[in-house]
Amino acid sequence: MDQIEYRFRLNYSKHSFIRFTSILDIQKIWERSFRRAGIKLSYSKGFHPQAKIQQASPLPLGFCGDDEVLDIWVEEIQGNTIETDQINSFLPSGLEIHQITPIDLSMPSLQQFIESSDYSISIIDPAALIPLSSLIDDVNMAEQILFMKHNGKKYDLKPLIQSICFNVEEGSSLLVSFSGASGRPDHLLQYFNLDPSQFIITRKKIHFTDHG
Question: I need a labelling partner for 29 at 20 to 30 A (CA). Which of 52, 96, 118, 166 fits?
Answer without folding.
Answer: 118
